[in-house]
Amino acid sequence: MSCLFCSFADGSIPTTRVAENSDALAINDINPVAPTHILIIPKKHFENAVEVGRGEPRILASIFALAEEIARTKSLDGYRTVFNTGASVGQSVFHAHLHLLAGRAFGWPPG
């Protein structure tokens, strides 16, 4: 079974990287829901955020460190991060990825 995000990570499908560290890469979402909508993808395959946290919590910390670096680099005054875990809440690619959203006002509660 092939995984789109694994192909981005290993370079077999080229993509423009917004940022990167040793554990994760960041790309612009192709269907943005905010002016800034970036996906932060672990380079190692995990189905969802729970698997990342259970298997290698250091990678989870690295994903959030990359989000903070992107926010600082882009001078974002605030941002929202979202992991969708499961099809019922909108996960459509089953390789864990963090959505970094910014650039407009967000309501609460989400959804």
The CATH superfamily appears as HIT-like
Uncertain spans: none
Judging by the overall fold, what is the CATH architecture?
2-Layer Sandwich
Q: Helix content range of the residues, please? A: 25-40%
Alpha-carbon distance between the two ends: 31 Å
What is the SS-derived class? alpha+beta
**At the third CATH level, what is the topology name?**
HIT family, subunit A
User: What is the CATH C level class, in words?
Assistant: Alpha Beta
Number of helices: 3
Domain count: 1
Q: Please count the beta strands (DSSP E, at least 2 residues each).
A: 5
Q: Mean pLDDT score, rounded?
A: 95
CA radius of gyration is 13 Å
Main sheet properties: 5 strands, antiparallel
The gross shape turns out to be: globular
Q: Which sequence of strands runs across the widest sheet?
A: 1-2-3-5-4
The helix/strand order is HEEEHHEE
- Hey, roughly how much beta strand do the residues contain? 15-25%
Short account of what is shown:
With 111 residues, the chain is of the alpha+beta class.
Keywords, separated by commas or semicolons:
111 residues, alpha+beta, HIT family, subunit A, 5-stranded antiparallel β-sheet, 5 strands, 28% helix, globular
Mind explaining what this structure looks like?
The structure is a single chain. This protein has 111 residues and is an alpha+beta fold. It has one domain: 2-Layer Sandwich (HIT family, subunit A), CATH 3.30.428. It is 28% helix and 21% strand. A 5-stranded antiparallel beta sheet has the order 1-2-3-5-4, covered by helices on one side. β1 (19-20) and β2 form a beta hairpin. α2 (49-55) packs across α3. The model has no long low-confidence stretch (mean pLDDT 95).
